[in-house]
Amino acid sequence: MQGDAGPCSLELTVRGADGKAVYAATVKVHIKYGFGGIRRLDLEAGTNSEGKVRFDGIPAKVQRPPLEFHGSKDELTGIASFDPSAECHAQRDLTLQKPQAPDGH
Fold it and tell me: What CATH code is assigned to 8-81?
């Protein structure tokens, strides 16, 4: 997925709770950047057969880092964090799990 907003990139490997790659998971990110966070960019991409997805063109300076990449497939969800000002080109794992039920207190 090409963001065309900067020089940074992130490659994610989406895995299930069993550690296996997850095919066709969706990963989304909302990016605010520029003076006062006036510019916004919403990116969404799906994983390939190896559970990988790559986001290019991420701005080096974002408002309120780190960015949170939200992954999902069926009822499974997960989050991976990335601060492009600290590490412009990175690789991360994003593990999908069933959401925890509220404890009712």
Answer: 2.60.40.1120
The DSSP H or E segment spanning 92 is strand 89-95
Structure tokens at 59: 């701005």
Which SS3 state, helix, strand or coil, does residue 2 take? strand
* Tokens encoding 63: 């408002």
Full 3-state SS string of 22-68: CCCCEEEEEEEECHHHCEEEEEEEECCCCCEEEEEEECCCECCCCEE
In the β-sheet with 76-82, what is the strand arrangement from edge to edge?
39-46, 26-33, 67-73, 76-82
List the domain boundaries for the chain.
8-81
Compute CA distances 6 → 10, 29, 41, 99, whole Å. 12, 15, 11, 33
pLDDT tens for residues 9-52?
999 999 999 999 999 999 999 999 988 888 999 999 999 999 99
Whole-model pTM: value is 0.90
